Amino acid sequence: MAKRDVPPRWDRKMQQRLARGEAAALGELYDRFASLVHGLAHRVLGDESAADRLTREVFVHVWEHPDSYDPKDGPLRTWVAALTHRLAVQRLRATETAALARDGSGTAEELEHRVRSAAVAARADYIVQAMPVPLRSALERAYFQRRDYRQAAADLGITEDEARRRLRLGLQLLSTAHDTEAPGAPPGFGGAV
Predict the structure, then answer these.
(1) Which residues 6+ apart lie within 8 Å of 14 measured at CB?
(2) What is the CB neighbour count within 10 angstroms for residue 188?
(3) Contact yes or no for 154/162 (Cβ under 8 A)
(4) Is 121 exposed, middle or buried (0-12, 13-18, 19+ CB in 10 A)?
(5) pLDDT of residue 183
(6) Tens digits of per-residue pLDDT, 35-87?
(7) Contact of 118 with 86, CB cutoff 8 Å
(8) Is it the case that residue 4 has pLDDT exceeding 80?
(9) 143 or 57: which carries more pLDDT confidence?
(10) What pLDDT is attached to residue 105?
(11) Taking a C-beta distance cutoff of 8 angstroms, is the pair 180, 120 a contact?
């Protein structure tokens, strides 16, 4: 198993290529993470065109500030997700605050509740996407297909005990979406909502 302080080779190489200004590196990064960025942005903002704009902004930021990512701090995927989350929450807060000032409908507490709800939903999405495939597969069967642990075990070709274990672990990870410093969520996904 690799040491925690040694980032994956791809992440280090990508950061170096971006720092050198290789346009192909940005394209490769976009191909790999655009759906993650857009999905998180859409989950927080709730608007397709706003998510499209924010996705562009995230990749512009990465292109213009490649040195703001330090491979020693964790995976590039996590950094990009945290950047997306931070920018999306800032945009939502600014948009909602402007609407509150303009319309006078709602309160600052309601605004903060909407922002926090969107942030938790984005963290939950990220946790599900980042969890190991066996856990995600069991949760998807239980949630989307409404399968119990016995049915999930049969679908996945595993024992019932293993199905219960996977479901329990997956739900434990997912429950951290409400935590201010969730272990399954990237840094920056926590209390800075």
Answers:
(1) 25, 28, 29, 76
(2) 17
(3) no
(4) middle
(5) 39
(6) 999 999 998 898 999 999 999 999 999 999 999 998 888 889 889 998 998 99
(7) no
(8) no
(9) 57
(10) 67
(11) no
Tokens 């198993």, residue? 1
Does the model's pTM come out above 0.70?
A: no
- The label of the residue with tokens 């902004």 reads 57
Copy the structure tokens of residue 71: 């491979």
Three-state secondary structure string covering the chain: CCCCCCCCHHHHHHHHHHHCCCHHHHHHHHHHHHHHHHHHHHHHHCCHHHHHHHHHHHHHHHHHCHHHCCHHHCCHHHHHHHHHHHHHHHHHHHHHHHHHHHHCCCCHHHHHHHHHHHHHHHHHHHHHHHCCHHHHHHHHHHHCCCCCHHHHHHHHCCCHHHHHHHHHHHHHHHHHHHCCCCCCCCCCCCCCC
Residue in the structure block whose two tokens are 């490769």: 28
